[in-house]
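User: Can you help me understand a structure? I only have the sequence.
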Amino acid sequence: MTTRSSASLVVHDEVKRGHTNAAPKAPLHGGGEAPAPGSEFFTERTLIRKPAPMLDDFNIGDVHASYARTVTETHLVNFAALAGLQLPMFIDHEHARSAGMFGSPIVPGFLTASLSGGMLESVLGHNVLAGLGMQDFVFRKPVCPGDTLHVEVEVKDKKVAGGHGRGVLSVGVNVVNQRNEVVLSYSTQVLMKKEG
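Assistant: Let's start by predicting it. Here is the structure, written out as tokens:
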């Protein structure tokens, strides 16, 4: 079973859907408006959202898609500065053109992986208690500023853990660009609430 959704929230029992690039306004608990989830803005007030899924809401074989997000040159420059990355393929347009490999600076794989974490969270929800591991990172295609990415999350396994109303969810993650090409794949396991 495949489910696809963009960023969504529930307002007065009505589901609102939005694309992060459009950044529609969303009502805040306590009044006012804020950009939709996944945009570049953060607030201390809480967005009114649909209930987060529990372990039992996921079925083995299901595939869930996240919202889409466009990677910008600003993301690239800020991440390179924060991480201390100085390789010309990430930050030097002239080098990227003359080297001939990609024709423009490429996005560091770790930035792609980091962005996928937020998109993964939008699928798994806020009942995740802990990350337990990540394996098998394969960078399949280059990502360039201007590419629009989303994640497709396939449920691989789930099991109850320790009888404390929680369990382990194992998923495969594909990060997909606007051309429907998988640019990064990996697997991860999380500890999450089983019931309310």
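Now, to help you interpret it: Helices lie at 73-83, 88-91, 93-99, 109-124. The chain has two domains: 7-50, 52-193. Let me know which part you'd like to focus on.
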